[in-house]
Give the backbone structure.
Amino acid sequence: MKKIIVIGFLMTSLLSACFANEVNVFSSRHYESDIKLYKKFTDQTGIKVNVISGKDEALQKRILEEEKYSKADLYITSDAGNIVTFDNKGMFQNSMSPIIEKLVPSNFRGNNWVSITKRARILFYSPDRVTRDDLINLSYEDLANSKWQGRIVIRQSNNIYNQSLVASLIFNNGEEETSKWAKGVVNNMSRAPKGNDRAQILAVAAGEADIAIANTYYYALMLSGNKGAEQKLAAKKVLPFFPNQNNRGTHMNISGGGILKYAPNKDNAIKLIEFLLTKEAQQHLINNTFEYSIIDGVEPHELIKNMGLDFKQDLETNIASYGKNQSDALEIMLNAKWK
Ligand code: FE
């Protein structure tokens, strides 16, 4: 039996080496649902998807070290800054096709990278301790106001979502203003930053703070019950608020990827991206992860819909600037003693 398996394995390896109809995906997205989606792609096209999952740092290190010997075709990650920084290192090649260009709004792609889904980084507040008046025209900028002293929770400065948010503030307000802002926010924190996005929402629910900053999909994930009854109950105690509605709009981030410079299966990688941008695939993605679709005409999950869909997204800030400004953003936060 064992022998047959070994021979079978050797034959498959041999076959795939001769007729490689495959695509190699390096992904830091940690969703089981992504794997199911890749299976659908294989069923439709016959192209096998080999997935290497891992943290961004490890995946990038491996791609950089293996250089032209790397088998990676497509690198998929969350956070625009992450993608753009990797692109600036010259690791991608042109990842566009006429279909991709048509489907993805220009603000959400570069020549060498493309967004697959969108998410917003917003505020979650306690309706018991934050009034309607407090929320009128509330912006990220206002979080530095001393009125919020001891009332804000947000995760650490090493978190990439925070770095992108602060990078967008640098883009809009400049470094000096953003430095002042970061000091104000640190002053207003109810505790030293710790935990993930969901932990911030839990803190508001527990009365440890009045406003949390977190990505939209984490709130929906908690409400879905997939993280247990306790988190569902906690999420019900807070409400979402989309800041900066009276100016540029709410900070948007993306998950997406690019085709690597030495991709052995570029054509298949393009086909996979095009597949991920179909209505069917987009629906699958956002139903499972509670993100927003990157293409028109795909309705979000009910839990996301309930948060309100008519909010203004920040489409003015070029998201490629997140990559450019992230290291400055981190420096500014560290200088402000943002843990
Ligand atoms: Fe996340």
About this structure: The mean pLDDT is 94.
